[in-house]
Amino acid sequence: MSTIEDPTDDHLEVTPPKTWATGLPAVTHALQYSLGQTTVRRTALTLLNINQAKGFDCPGCAWPEPDPKHRHLQEYCENGAKHISDEATSRRVTADFFREHSISELDGKSDYWLNQQGRLTEPMVKRPGSDHYEPIGWDGALDLLAGELRALDSPDEAVFYTSGRVGNEAAFLLQLFARAYGTNNLPDCSNMCHESSGSALNETLGIGKGSVSLDDIHRSDLVLVVGQNPGTNHPRMLSALEETKRAGGQVVAVNPLPEAGLMRFKHPQKARGIVGRGTTVADQFLQIRPGGDLALFQALNLLLLEAEDAAPGTVLDHEFIDTHSTGFAEFARHARKTDWDDVRKATGLTREEIEQLHERVLRSRSVIVCWAMGLTQHKHGVPTIREVVNFLMLRGNIGRPGAGVCPVRGHSNVQGDRTMGIWERMPQAFLDALEREFGFTPPTRHGWDTVDSIRAMRDGRARVFVGVAGNFVRAAPDSDLTEAALRTCRLTAHISTKLNRSHTVCGDTALILPTLGRSDRDVQGGVEQFVTVEDSMSQVHASRGRLEPASGTLLSEVAIISRLAARTLGDSPSLPWAAFEADYGAVRDRISRVVPGFHDYNARAAEPGGFLLPNPVNHGTFPTPSGKAVFTCNDFTMVQAPERHLVLQTLRSHDQWNTVPYAMNDRYRGIHAGRRVVLVNPVDLEALGLADRDRVDLVSVWHDGVERRARDFRVVPYPTTPGSAAAYYPETNVLVPLDSVADISNTPTSKGVVVRLEPSGTAARVPSPPPTGMR
pTM for this structure? Predict the structure, then answer.
């Protein structure tokens, strides 16, 4: 029996939120966690190689590393150290573990407990009717999966899901296999986070990626950090913002919650961060209501147009507008209809606060807008980001130094996976390149994204699910529905490094296929291999594992996918799966002939720091149908909750990475030894008749009449925006309806869930009126 206890929330403690982030406590917590997972020697080897030019890329966030000449020896953050140490753990999950624990028992364990059991070591199978996993050899496991795929009536009955931890080579092979097999069903984690960014940027700029570099962040006059929490989700961004401040730039934070890292940052690798007060990061904090960002940027754009009226030729960049854009006249007419009363209601901000930001914009020659899920995970996420682009284009803040768009990706290679073809709607040019290179005709019908894949499994249209990395069950919305959908499958298979809840939600047959981690040495045919990744700023670089693998039986993701493809489709001169497994350089050679920007891939990837993919936006070229950047007209809308209801945003605690909690704490927000908490403004608590630590159920309100309930949360008074609340995912993913999605991008609206709070154990269920939704 494992000695890891399954924690409860019985000992919840709450202290005042922190007003600064990082410093010595971050170093201490990182080392404590690392040494709790493995030996001093293995910890040192891990931390000395993470994010180094000859080491391995952190499997955490996608924030870029500085040029190799300017990297610290400790080029990682607290959460990165925890994340890699979690992978490098000495704990092991063996066949004996699965003999001891039934699937039903594991299904009742917490996400924390499951993760803490350690690394998976050998393939396992759950047979139909069984409640236990049992060992199976690699040949048997892959033959079983390939046989199920070959037996489907249509390739479109299979779903191939990918998490952003997967390297470029494995991602390319997975999409190649899926398309050669005959389907575009390639959902990925980006569908649930930054799909709204890609949709908006492709429409307006012609490329679904950010346009800035680390140097741009450092030299910018003004950086807007909107709808994101760098202190927890990508802490190394704080060191970049510190450079912005030290170079004379300013930072403005826009967020429903005050976040410690955006108040003050103590750089743990600088003396001023250890013994001094650190750096005040945000020059202005706009505490906005959830979903109010569209109205904020509409107001800023109106103010810029009015400033140009007052001083013609001095505010707007007419050269950029006239030469490089289209749609300005229609946009300007639409923008002038902005109503300040609407803005006030949607944002919760005063006109004075917005005008103060407007004055900062007028004084800035270069402006960057950074954003994350606080913008993307709303029904109007795409229009919001389009309005951000309008804002930047008005003063020519696109495609020049210190300016541009900066969607901050939350997983290490989610952007690289998309570049490699992990998308259910890849453009025809990519499919044509695949056909020229590999001699088969890829399917052209669009596949299913994450939400549509869940619908397909629910409806019996998908019967085999293959997940490559990640924790699909806990990342997806509408938890009860998602789990029921997966259980309808004939077979579910997960290529994983560690145990997670997805392994307890099984089809008739279920496979666990354990794989090497990012930090593990990968040797094929006696030759050490490396993989590559692409960060949030389009830098592609090598990642070389340095640790001895958790088990001698583990296969790499490249090997698993190649062997599965060979068993399903056969090995042939045009699709030489065995050659790909034996030499990842052979995979990169083929990528170089399919994906633009990857010429001389092997040689350039081997250089320290790798290479930068070209972004046409930074050369004044916009690959839109018109060949120009596009101004758009975006109708005002806002989330409206019925009386005595709140708008809930799901979020991550500080001691957490994606779906995995590393501890039951969120020390920056003052939450200790508990996760089932809901943060509510004291004014709202008084209006609702609730008190500190009251136990409540969170009940989401959606027009389908289905009750979605997250049970037994403790109320914690917190300085959230009035009318809103916040709680941790994945515990609250159950509240996000599958059909509550962003327009165009189909992203779940996890930052705009209308809920009511009911005392736990309430017998009577009082129905809520449906939310008035958007207007």
Answer: 0.96
